[in-house]
Design a protein that fits this description.
The protein is built from 1 helix and 3 strands; from the N terminus they run βββα. Strand 1 and strand 2 (14-18) form a beta hairpin. The longest helix is centred in the C-terminal third of the chain and has 21 residues, at 60-80. The relative contact order is 0.13. It has one helix at residues 60-80; strands at residues 3-8, 14-18, 36-39. It is α+β, with helices and mostly antiparallel strands.
Amino acid sequence: MPTYVYKNIETGETFEIKQSIHDEALSTHPETGAPIKRVPSQPGLVFRGSGFYVTDSRPKSAETGTSKATGTDGGGKGGGGE
């Protein structure tokens, strides 16, 4: 469930409440009954760049070294299983 940030209108205190995405925003604090409002907040995870794979940000030399190691390991494993 998503976590939403709310602000107490009287005191200015902020707090988080877990709610279903389908629930409407609360207008009163569930414990005290004080008036509250939902505050916009930034997402906790941001994707940036052209891709989301680990190899997208690696230098060319690291990719070449990884490919060689994978090719050697893959051949050895395949030969032992036959």
